[in-house]
Write a structure and sequence with these properties.
Elements lengths: L1 E4 L26 E4 L35 H11 L3 E2 L8 E5 L5 E6 L5 E3 L2 E3 L2 E7 L2 E6 L4 E3 L17 H4 L9 E8 L2 E7 L7 E3 L2 E8 L2 E8 L2 E8 L2 H4 L7 E6 L4 E4 L6 E4 L5 E5 L3 E3 L5 E4 L9 H5 L16 E3 L1 E5 L2 E5 L2 H5 L7 E4 L2 E3 L4 E5 L7 E2 L11 E7 L4 E10 L8 E14 L5 E8 L8 H4 L8 E7 L10 E3 L4 H10 L3 E7 L10 E4 L7 E7 L10 E4 L2 E2 L7 E3 L4 E6 L9 E10 L5 E5 L8 E6 L9 E10 L19 E5 L8 E3 L9 E5 L5 E6 L8 E8 L6 E3 L7 E5 L5 E11 L8 E8 L18 E4 L5 E4 L10 E3 L1 E3 L2 E2 L15 E4 L12 E4 L5 E4 L7 E2 L4 E2 L12 E7 L9 E6 L4 E7 L4 E8 L5 E7 L8 E6 L7 E4 L2 E2 ...
Parallel strand pairs: 1-34, 41-47, 49-55, 59-64
Antiparallel strand pairs: 2-22, 3-4, 4-5, 5-38, 6-7, 8-9, 9-10, 10-11, 11-12, 12-17, 13-14, 14-15, 15-16, 16-26, 16-27, 17-25, 18-19, 19-20, 20-27, 21-23, 21-26, 24-25, 28-29, 28-31, 30-31, 30-37, 31-36, 32-35, 32-37, 32-38, 33-34, 33-36, 39-40, 39-42, 42-45, 43-44, 43-46, 46-47, 48-50, 50-53, ...
Length: 1069
């Protein structure tokens, strides 16, 4: 329990209903007095989640506000702005929530609704009636009620002469009921029917007046948020003699609610299939017009509307009730769905009774309710203030009032659902607007935690020590007596109670207001109980971060968290632990995520750190493999902490619903390298049985001693050690790889075993030769698969053939030379004495016209030869033929570079370009099988330049010249565009100089990074990737061989790299 002094907080205001926070305004209200006519029926009591009816059954509106802001976004905006931002996504009929800078949230939970949801939008409550399908209904309320539009056979009145006893017996078979009110509350339909016809109503704001439903008797319905009020107006004693009033009947019907009568209070409740009260009708009362209406000092006089001026019943003072009026409880009975009310005859017939007399049975929704407990009427229910002082009240009362001799207590329900479950409560206070006290002296009022109230709650059935056994606060205040102590808000601290509610998972709590001295009128107080100034609880809270769950915890390797047995198995590798943390208040509120790992057997902790999560709430922590012992089982868990240093209420995954901790077992033993065999692809020097490109070829892989049950999979790849393919053993340790090998010549299979723990075996490298397809070679192709290949001479003077695939990638090689079917002599391609290497080039079929690509080589002996290809990527040195040059042509011994091409001059014969040591640039045209027809000196100053290729680059079908210009560092590669010759090829003159070329100038094809020091070897290639543009192979000083895709105007990106010590090679061609 806490005792607090009164405070002067600002009240809520109408703008809050729309989510807009505006500056507060002061509130003042004078002491009540007895006197003239008050504002009639200004009662708006808040109830459940809203519905808006069209035709037929009401449907709950589930649409979200268009500008809905969820908690994480509101929190981010609050931090950015430095002020509170409403969480509009959590707005409800009776709650408003704000995000505060720093991570906390503030929620107001009202005892009454302050807004209603209409057509998917939150709107201020508006009880004014409008015409709808089937009748009249309020514009914006929760739990909508539709009033009857009248029946066709009913006129504005029923004449007294038409009365018969039979017409009043509405439960007589064949006599119809008329739906008076159709209501929906909390998704349940409820219909109240009238025993007879109804006239068309007169509509006045929230009121529907049915005049002369019986002669001299009017019926008035008033729409309220959450239900309606009902008053039967008996205008005179003659009307009181109507047989209808002998036993006034209403039929109650619902498809899914059961109606119960509380015998003690006479209250009726409508309950769902679980017994929960959904709606209720308090004790039915009747009163006369002898009292006086309570008014407020200096309040403006009530003025009748134009409709009320024309229909006098709407202006009767007694409709608002009156203190001092004669009041009686009408007896009630419920049977077969019919509520029967028996008006008190002594009131109707007493000489002192002042007519009109009013009878009030009504229905209200249950949620967000309050009730007045009145000792004088100990068995009567004044649920939501209804029927107190006759027509009802908006004010809760506490204590003893000497004027009337009545003693009151008031209880308020506060519904907040599950939003506060598990929250850490920073502060909580209940605010109530006190509008009256007996003096300005501060007198105590006690606040209790009570059971939840219903429409059957009365003074007598709540007046027990058990009901009022937990006092949570005492408030000292003296507001509302006069201008010296005007109306003001009290705000006693109830943090302890709200904390209990959050920790225990309550969806609501009830607060009872009672005077500590119920015989002293100085403790008497009043509080506004309905509408936007109803009591509310202001709560500042923060949800702890959520306990990590198994689904958000995993290891790499290992995978998702397993909590049983030995868990997952992890091999000899560093282990990365990953946790995705969550916080219902937003990921931004997370501060740290703890990860703890320990040995299951010894209990020794091997890791315990608290990394900071990223913007997705994810943390990772890598633990070196050396921290783990092979064969041991390990557990790991995770906890979270937010920026308020509020930790999760447990450790995941055990405390978040799993059966144990995340578990894994460590195995550091690597499997042996697998063995590989194949009938279709035998090892060298044999060639494949079938041609390259044959589908469904088989290669068998076995574990080589690894137990089949310990093998998870084999990982493999072809011609690159990528291991991006997987095969699972299907029979013991055997896995058969099905593949199609498209690259002719040498191919390499890389394969390794992966154990169940994830340990990797050493790789097995299996070399085999794929037999070339029959047919002619393509440009630059020596293996018959139509893909350009690259030749090289290694440091030992041996020729190698690297077969290119469909992307130009090269990996494996085979010996590039044979000697009449046998191996070529070692070191054949260099002079062992001088170390001088042959110059090599290949492009097309040179000799003897068999369609197979041949090799052109300037050998260390200074002569130029053609070595015929045999179609397998190899060349037969035993069949070489010397190439004869025209008279006066330069000596091949002076050549420093040769470049072989297909026909570029248009004569149908292959051509050759060469650079000599003196700087000469030469072209040899028309090779006939033994010699060239002609030669041409292209230029004399090419010492700083190297030929890359002579092929069409820009796509105009005319060969161009691509070269390296070592003299110009800013343009590493240069493109010279050729002009068409007379025979359909290129005019060689156009390639002699920039001035002669197409466009009259050279263009930069690639900029820096192409010097001889940076790229010691460079080779142009026919198109490798199918775009029709020649490409470029290069070798850098680190030993990498790079493939660059060509472009029509500039060189394209690097497309592949081979790391095989290419800087040790003597030449490429």
């Amino acid at each position: 329990m806490s005792v607090s002094e009164s405070v002067d907080p600002s009240p809520p205001n109408a703008a809050e209903a729309s989510g807009v926070v505006v500056p507060p305004r002061p509130w003042y209200r004078r002491r009540r007095s007895m006197g003239g006519l008050a504002a009639l029926l200004a009662v708006a009591v808040a109830v459940p989640v809203g519905v808006h009816l069209g035709a037929g059954r009401p449907k709950t509106q589930a649409a979200r506000d268009g500008a809905s802001i969820a908690a994480p976004e509101a929190r981010r905006l609050a931090d950015k702005s430095g002020g509170e931002v409403e969480v509009t996504a959590e707005r409800s009929a009776n709650t408003t929530t704000w995000a505060q800078p720093g991570g906390s949230f503030r929620k107001k939970v009202y005892s009454a609704a302050i807004r209603a949801r209409v057509d998917g939008q939150w709107k201020p409550i508006d009880t004014r009636l409008e015409r709808v399908d089937g009748g009249f209904a309020a514009k914006a309320v929760n739990s909508r009620a539709v009033f009857s539009a009248g029946t066709k056979r009913a006129s504005r009145g029923v004449t007294r002469a038409s009365l018969t006893q039979a017409s009043l017996t509405q439960d007589t078979p064949g006599t119809p009921w008329t739906d008076l009110v159709r209501m929906n509350t909390d998704g349940h339909d409820l219909v109240v029917s009238w025993p007879g016809a109804l006239p068309e109503p007169v509509i006045d704001g929230p009121r529907a007046l049915y005049e002369n439903v019986r002669p001299g008797i009017d019926l008035l319905l008033t729409a309220q948020d959450g239900g309606y009020s009902h008053v039967l107006v008996i205008k005179d004693k003659q009307a009181a003699a109507d047989p209808l009033l002998g036993e006034l009947k209403y039929r109650l019907a619902s498809p899914d609610l059961a109606f119960q009568l509380d015998a003690e209070s006479g209250a009726v409740s409508a309950r769902n299939d679980t017994g929960e009260e959904v709606a209720g009708s308090p004790s039915p009362l009747m009163w006369d017009s002898s009292g006086r209406v309570a008014t407020t000092d200096n309040a403006p006089a009530w003025e009748a509307t134009e409709v009320a001026k024309q229909h006098p019943t709407l202006g009767l003072p007694g409709l608002a009730g009156a203190e001092g009026a004669r009041v009686k409880v009408a007896k009630s009975a419920l049977a077969d769905g019919v509520l029967s009310l028996t008006p008190d005859g002594s009131l109707l017939n007493a000489p002192e009774t002042v007519y009109p007399v009013f009878v009030d049975p009504s229905f209200k929704g249950h949620k967000h309710a309050w009730t007045l407990l009145y000792k004088t009427e100990g068995n009567s229910s004044f649920y939501n203030g209804q029927n107190y002082n006759a027509s009802g009240t908006n004010e809760a009362r506490v204590g003893y009032e000497s004027t009337t001799g009545g003693t009151s207590r008031s209880i308020f329900n506060f519904d907040f659902g599950s939003e506060l479950h598990g929250a850490a409560i920073k502060s909580a206070a209940v605010y109530a607007l006190q509008t009256y006290s007996w003096s300005c002296d501060r007198k105590a009022m006690d606040i209790y935690s009570t059971p939840y109230i219903t429409s059957s709650s009365t003074w007598n059935n709540t007046n027990t020590a058990a009901y009022w056994n937990r006092k949570v606060a005492t408030e000292m205040a003296g507001y509302g007596y006069n201008s010296s102590c005007p109306d003001n808000w009290i705000a006693p601290d109830i943090k302890g109670l709200v904390t209990d509610a959050a920790n225990s998972g309550w969806g609501a709590l009830s607060l009872g207001f009672a005077a500590p001295n119920e015989s002293d009128s100085y403790y008497w107080k009043k509080f506004i109980a309905n509408g936007e100034t109803s009591p509310y609880i202001d709560i500042v809270y923060n949800h702890p971060p959520e306990i990590p769950i198994a689904a958000n915890m995993q290891t790499f390797p290992g995978g998702p968290c397993l909590t049983s047995g030995a868990g997952t198995s992890i091999g000899k590798t560093n282990v990365t632990f990953q946790v995705k943390a969550t916080d219902r208040d937003g990921i931004e509120t997370l501060k740290t995520v703890q990860i703890e790992v320990w040995d299951a057997a010894s209990g020794q902790q091997i890791y315990n750190q608290t990394p900071t999560p990223n913007s997705d709430g994810v943390v990772t922590a890598e633990v070196p493999w050396g921290k783990f012992t092979s064969g041991h089982k390990y557990y790991w868990l995770s906890r979270t902490v937010d920026t308020d240093n509020l930790g999760s209420t447990g450790s995941g995954p055990l405390d978040s619903g799993s059966s144990g901790w995340c578990t894994f077992t460590v195995d550091h033993v690597a499997p042996p390298a697998p063995t590989v065999s194949s009938v279709q692809f035998p090892p060298p020097p044999e060639w494949s049985v079938d041609y390259a490109g044959t589908k469904d070829q088989a290669i068998d892989v076995r574990g080589s001693g690894a137990k089949a049950e310990d093998i998870r999979e084999y990982q493999w790849s072809l011609n690159r050690p990528l291991f991006d393919q997987k095969a699972t053993p299907t029979s013991g340790d055997l896995a058969t790889l099905k593949l199609q090998v498209d690259t002719t010549g040498p191919n390499t299979l890389y394969v390794r075993t992966v154990s169940k723990a994830g340990n990797l075996s050493p790789q097995t490298v299996y070399l085999f030769y794929a037999k070339p397809k029959a047919g002619q070679d393509g440009p630059g192709d020596v293996s018959g698969d139509q893909h350009p290949d690259i030749l090289s001479i290694d440091k030992d003077g041996n020729l190698r053939t690297y077969a290119g695939d469909e992307k130009g990638d090269t990996d494996a090689y085979l010996p590039g030379a044979v000697d009449n079917g046998g191996p070529a002599p070692a070191g054949y391609w260099k002079d062992s004495a001088t170390g001088m290497s042959a110059l090599i080039a290949h492009s097309t079929d040179w000799y003897p016209g068999d369609g197979l690509t041949d090799l052109v080589a300037r050998m260390p002996d200074g002569k130029l030869y053609v070595y015929p290809g045999i179609g397998t990527g190899q060349f037969d040195i035993s069949r070489r033929m010397e190439v004869l040059l025209p008279a006066n042509a330069p000596d091949p011994a002076t050549f420093r570079q040769i470049v072989a091409t297909e026909d570029v001059t248009g004569d149908g014969l292959p051509d050759l370009f060469a650079l000599d040591t003196a700087g000469g640039f030469w072209a040899f045209s028309g090779y006939t099988g033994s010699s060239f027809v002609s030669y041409k000196k292209m230029a004399a100053n090419w010492a700083p330049r190297d030929i890359v290729g002579v092929r069409d680059v820009n796509g105009d079908k005319i060969p161009d010249l691509l070269f390296r210009d070592a003299a110009n560092h800013d343009r590493g590669l240069v493109l010279r565009k050729g002009k068409a010759g007379t025979d359909g090829g290129v005019d060689l003159t156009s390639l002699q100089s920039a001035a002669n070329s197409q466009g009259g100038q050279d263009s930069t094809y690639a900029t820096t990074g192409w010097s001889r020091a940076e790229v010691p070897m460079l080779l142009g290639s026919p198109d490798t990737n199918g775009d029709g543009i020649p490409d470029v192979w290069s070798v850098d000083t680190l030993g990498n061989q790079w493939l660059f895709w060509g472009g029509a105007a500039t060189l394209g990106p690097a497309a592949g790299r081979d790391e095989d010590g290419w800087n040790t090679f003597l030449t490429i061609g």
